[in-house]
Design brief:
single chain; 278 residues; alpha/beta; CBS-domain; 2 domains; 3-stranded mixed sheet
Length: 278
Amino acid sequence: MKVKVHFSTFVFGLLLIFLGFVKELFSIFLVVCVHETGHVLAAKKLKVEVLEVNIYPFGGVAFLDPTVFIRPDLEILIALAGPFFNIFFAFLSELFSQIFDIRLDYFIKANLIMAFFNLLPGLPLDGGRILKSFLSYFLSLRSAILVSTYGTYLISFSLLWVSFKDISQVSRNVLYTFLAVLLVIAANKEKKMSAFLQMRNLYRKKVEFYKKGTMAVHHLAVSEKAKLKDIIKNFMPSKYHVIIILDSNLREKYRMTESEFFEKALEYGLNSCIGDIL
């Protein structure tokens, strides 16, 4: 498993030092480690390989085995594990401080803030991943990512609103503004990856089909004039798709499997109409 520290984490650390939060920096580093340990342990328990972990100021982003894209329940459990570990360690720290009379107030507070902030419904936060996975049962993966991205915009706007509401809190406002911008950048990156995730999802469907010999099928009826980029928005992660092309009289003209669809998409581009490539 590769562990990478995103450049924004170094910038965030320098900001904390510049603003006088040197002691807090060490606690935040430990809290992020606790958070990511929860994700990694949960993934291993569920037998999902963690390929890479990128460390951000608000936590880490774990790149998991593609299985999670057709098993949303696994991604929900793995996403919940990070905040759960933070809450668990906050409880242990409070117990430890009571027994040994040691002040761990900031570490306890930092764990709770990390947990509840990550549960907010916006990508790439854990709450956004939970929302995306839940919505993927009913929507296409692309639409689920888009809705979760809008959640990120709302969170970022709220952080900026708090920052500008009271300009006297300079240190807090600088950190809030930095996090707001970083969240939007990270969410837009996830949104751009949605087409790639669809392709990787198809590969996992093939693997699962070869293992089990069966797979649930979802039929889509489309007109000849429908563009490939509009059709792909309706693809659901948990099912294999058969596209039925209808003529102007709503009569079946042709059928295309999901595998054929992606072959045509790579050859002709997503802006092509499905009727023109048959």
